[in-house]
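Practice record 12: protein with adenosine-5'-triphosphate.
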Amino acid sequence: MDCTLQIFVDDRWIDCAQIEFNGGLCQWNYPVTYAVDRTNVPLSLAERVDLGIRETRAIPAFLYDLVPQGAGRRFLLGELQLPDGADADFPLICAGALNPVGRIRVAEAVDYLDAHIARHPAARGLPGLMIDGIVLRSEEFKERMFLHGMLGTGTTAVQGAAPKYLLTRDRAGLLHGDAVLPDVDATQHFIAKLPRGNSPADEKVLRNEAAYMRVAAALGIRTHHDLPTLHGDVLLVPRFDRIARDGKVGRLHQESMASILGLAGFDLRPSLFEVVAGIRKVVTDPAAETLEFIKRDVLNLAMRNTDNHARNTAVQLTEGGKAQLTPLFDFAPMYLDPGSIPRALRWYRPDTRVELTDWSDVLAALPVPDDERETLATELKRFACQIERLPETMEEQDVDHDIIEFLTQSVDTQARQLKAR
Ligand SMILES: Nc1ncnc2c1ncn2[C@@H]1O[C@H](COP(=O)(O)OP(=O)(O)OP(=O)(O)O)[C@@H](O)[C@H]1O
Ligand SMILES: [Mg+2]
């Protein structure tokens, strides 16, 4: 089975790689003309552009960022009549990766959507919906989902466990499925995120995700200038990988840490020291991004966002060409999740593999120059004052009271550790 990857550069999609996957062997390369012209536009920050032919057992790690997960995966497995499992990943990409987050897509998946729409003539030229129509999951919205078969609304093109749709706002303010609205009509792009399940706890997690993001912004963590807003039980998250301007849509490179670390598959758990090393290898300003990542982890611990897996941190290339951590996403009180999610990634000391749970030990073990270690320590001490004020900040940003209360101890622990430095 083969597929062609396309990348969005200079306002258009161009072919950038051919992937061949037969049973246990995957072979891929950049086409010669691409390798010559586009040396600075890699598919992955871990796969520089050259003429080499790559051979791997599994499909390459960066392709896992395109594999449909959650509701989109289930839908597509049904359409393709495939049993679930690792063998389904590649066929799922070939049908579902038609407009993923970031700037890479699969040409065959675009054809798959076209064929699907051709089978459902009523799907053409549908008017947009107001956000209210989506919030109430109106009949109209359900019909639309079916007609576009969850493809046009991007359900197969965005990862994560919670059901979500990629929606685009037109000039009149109406929302459309992302893949069905032409770029020229687009003014803003969103991820509409629904609760993971039907329990009150699922709803509470999503509601507080909006407040958690405001808290992070108040603490100076890198957040998108447009923060998520809640509409009924739908969280509308403005996308930071798309820039709609003057009738054109720019698409920024975005890639998970799992991809940057070369992790093929899901649920692989690198140590946080490996994650930091991976970040430092690809970003423009390693010291600044290390500090940013550590501050995010302090907040994860203080506010018990336990779901810190390697796909919940990503790197982007900004319009100016700077490689940096993306604005924060998926930051929520995950300790409340009914599936009880323990902290996924931890600071395992590289030599002994023993978990470090105190920031002074983590800082001492970080492989950074000593002057940078000093700066990190100073900055984290400064951050401690903000952590001490966290209960008030959470109050100001409307985090639920019982959550603030529950976090008293974890906030204290973080503040104490950072000040002790
Ligand atoms: N504002 C955004 N702009 C661009 N991409 C985003 C944004 N927010 C999230 N993403 C991308 O969408 C994916 C899914 O979003 P998110 O992590 O919030 O979903 P989730 O279902 O809660 O995931 P999980 O299974 O980790 O709980 C992310 O992994 C990231 O690649
Ligand atoms: Mg996520």
